[in-house]
Records
---
Amino acid sequence: MTEPILSIRNAVKRYGSLHALDHVDLDVSEGEFLTLLGPSGSGKTTLLSAIAGFVGLATEQITLRSADITRAPLEYREFGMVFQGYALFPPMTVSDNVAFPFMVRKRPAAEIAERTQECLELVQMGGFTDGMPHQLSGGQQQRVALARAISFKPQVLLLDEPLSALDKKLHADLQWEFKSLHSQLGVTFIYVTHDQDEALSMSDRIVILKDGCIQQQRSSGDLHNSPRNSFVADFLGKSNYIDVDVTGRNVDILYCAAKDATFEVQAENVDEIGSKARLALRSERLRIDAPGVELLSATVKGVSYLGERCQVIVEDDGLGDLLISCTTLQTGITPTPGLEISIGWDTNACVVLVPE
Ligand SMILES: Nc1ncnc2c1ncn2[C@@H]1O[C@H](COP(=O)(O)OP(=O)(O)OP(=O)(O)O)[C@@H](O)[C@H]1O
């Protein structure tokens, strides 16, 4: 692995008896889009603030390109920042807001003017230079805040829920713009959100936090496909949990059984798993009326339609209730309560969980 641009070792933050951060280690690669994801109170903002230098930690070491910045003041760290509240300076024009980090650094006027215009154009706000913040929409204000954060070419950009105050459509548009700006600039992004879809769609890697502890960190696809424990599985989607007997193992495949169903599960550490295991079976990997891979027949208990998708609860004699999430067009049948259906799944639909 190449040398990380930023490393945090043993980050601890206590408020009284509460562990806001509990011995967190984190490495961030150069140019990476890294997201800190977790429920409210899991420690995301505390970790980002500790990186920024707003919050001091009890025991820790933070290095930036191998230089120890643990005790370095905020301004020395030179990180760009974008927060949820637009945080523009209200009495200043758009261009003065963007120029501000340059003015503080006492750069020549021509350089300030050129870079300000360049950054505003990058965020598609080139025509708004003389506007005042209060004349801008929330999305426009957030674009200007982003232009200001990148204006002095920071080594790392810290973003704390920058889109959460925006409506759904704007949120989706800006997600895309932030992501493409990240690719264009090649700057390292550390992004905080509690929104799973946002994290999955934008990030190279996601770090999942709970109660100040890292639960798992992997690329978006890997995390979704291989949640480590039931907290991660639940947080990233809807899963069915099944307690199974382990009946065999071969290289990286675990053979399991529960009642009249059998499961083949790919796992990295098959030798460390005992004779009992808990599996997560993703609701969107279950299929209704799946000829050829039919494994169970079950009775529909309830159905709810959510636009293109529908959620079906079926009852199986052996496994109990199972939730299936499928597209409404996927099956030739319309699931209705009381209907007997066959359900199936691919071998990669199951994940073996470790106890939390
Ligand atoms: N200044 C403070 N004094 C006391 N407790 C604090 C303080 N700041 C944060 N906490 C607590 O530390 C824990 C972590 O807070 P933090 O803001 O990092 O969580 P978060 O994951 O960012 O949550 P959210 O998504 O709600 O912003 C929470 O339980 C919070 O109440």
Note: Residues 168-185 form the longest helix (18 residues).
---
Amino acid sequence: MKRVVLQLLRRPATATAAGFVLAIGVIAVLAPALAPYDPLTQDYARTLEGPSADHLLGTDYLGRDVLSRLVFGARVAAQASLQTVSIALLIGVPLGLIAGYRSGWWDRVMMRLLDVADAIPGLVLAFAVIAVLGTGLTNAMIAVSIIFSMNFMRLSRALALGERERLYVDAARTSGLTQRNILLRQILPNMAAPLIVQSTIFMGTALLIEAALSFLGLGLETGSASWGGMLSGSTRWQFQQPFLPWPPGLAITLTVLAFNVLGDGVRDVLAGGTRDRTPRRRPRVRARRAAAQPSLAQLPDDDVPLDVRGLSVAFPGEDGDVEVVSEVSIRVRRGEALGLVGESGSGKTMTGRAVLGILPAGGAVTAGSIHVDGAQIVGRDEAALNDVRGSRVAMVFQDPMVALSPVHTIGRQVGQAVRNHAPTLSRADVRRRCVELLEMVRIADPEARLGDYPHQFSGGMAQRIVIALALASNPSVLIADEPTTALDVTTQQEILDMLTDLKQRLGTAIVLITHDLGVVADACDRAAVMYAGQVVEEAAVDDLFAAPRHPYTRALLAAMPTGAGGDDRLPTIPGRVPPMTALAPGCRFAPRCAVRTDACDAAPVELGAGVRCLHAGAAWQAGDAAHERRSQVQ
Ligand SMILES: Nc1ncnc2c1ncn2[C@@H]1O[C@H](COP(=O)(O)OP(=O)(O)OP(=O)(O)O)[C@@H](O)[C@H]1O
């Protein structure tokens, strides 16, 4: 806030406009003390006088003091602008926020209602409201608020649609925050900048509309001091007293101009980066525990916090559903790290997201089961999923900078995650736990860094904080989706070492999603290799590297840089991962496989003894040389 104010003051035009608006506000509040006369007292002996020592801005056709009426008019103008914009914000922003965030039928219904409302011209709507409720400033401004609220609704919807796709929202969902919390504490502050700008500009517009309605005699009762009314009254007498329209005319023009210049300035300053502008109230988080889920089927094996069986995920396509994950089964033990590895598009991320119930819009689990700590995830509603997310399973995303909310301090974000799972902790205990979490992820001087914002951290540091956020509730399962891809090699190694250490110390089951076999070798105990939505091989990492059984695994390993130097080009895998709408009828890897036979095309190949290949035994070894030769040519 301090930074924004300082930057605003450094811009002469914006500072002048802000000063002008502030002055109008002060005049409005102190009007009774500042006005030299009662604005309604008439003096027929002194009508239509020019400026004089007695009446600095002269008198009007009823002998009323123009300066006093101008001062009281500021009160009407301020009330009209504030009232209108506040009502419009209160109606438009929540509706737009919900429509944009929830999408689906909510959005469709609201947008159609908005279309209908848009079809009615604004002024006609204002006249209709005034006709029903009667003239008067409040009624007139209610009409204007309704029109403004539609505008705020469209703006908030568009902003929420954009924010909802950002990773910090996914991170908030995966840490178990309720929808209300996400909307009010995560998304809304990030929408603040454009809303503030729009509000400032609307204040000027509201003032102009109030003046116009008063000018037409539809605003305040005749006689009351309003700038529009003063202007309207002066038009009939301007030949006798040409000065009369000037004071209200200038007041309206300059105030509207000031609001617009201020709005532009605020927009420019906020566009350069936003800060926390939300009140520092402690969030009221509803206590929620697994006890609220009586239907959980406990799996017999307590040592396996993540058990995925036969998982399939599909998205609606032009010609029916497209399956992007097919019958994936993975089990991860406590203190074990499973690498989910494969080329881009092989379904790794969708598998991870399905575990947290955060598939992108349209995506759905079409078959299989997912048990986290014995709790079935598939088919559960959002409230039940919230109980599991964050507390039992958490996720770390690739780019830490977009996974953290840019407008909240680190202390606030980690603190919120802590409170979310331990609502009864005192402020001091929450702070202690935050420091402990930052220490756990090896952030130096954690006390001091709690007040910093994400942009004050390097990529590696920010990723540690994301991991601290994920660990806030001691989850049994941590899904890390390419957690080191956005980082340099040294930082990558530090993060992997830290994950390994946390896994051993806390007993967390980790799923490490990566396309990099080097990461698997470094940080995983077992690996599941995915191709075109299926797991094609699963084995202990040592076995996988020593004796890969699937031709795809073998090709991936051959394509790995060894660091041995030399001029030899790395072999590549011929062809590319097929689109999920055009899969081979048999083995999905067959079109790229060097050891393919007719049998491979005959029927889908099942996963047997950890590998999905008809030639997993000795037979394909013979073809391997041919495969590598072919790869090298590519
Ligand atoms: N929102 C979506 N709508 C439709 N299809 C999607 C959507 N998101 C992903 N997919 C499809 O799902 C498949 C699997 O994607 P996924 O992101 O899981 O792959 P990945 O192995 O994690 O790849 P990457 O490493 O590039 O993230 C891809 O074919 C992709 O096109």
Note: Residues 105 and 270 are 33 Å apart (CA to CA).
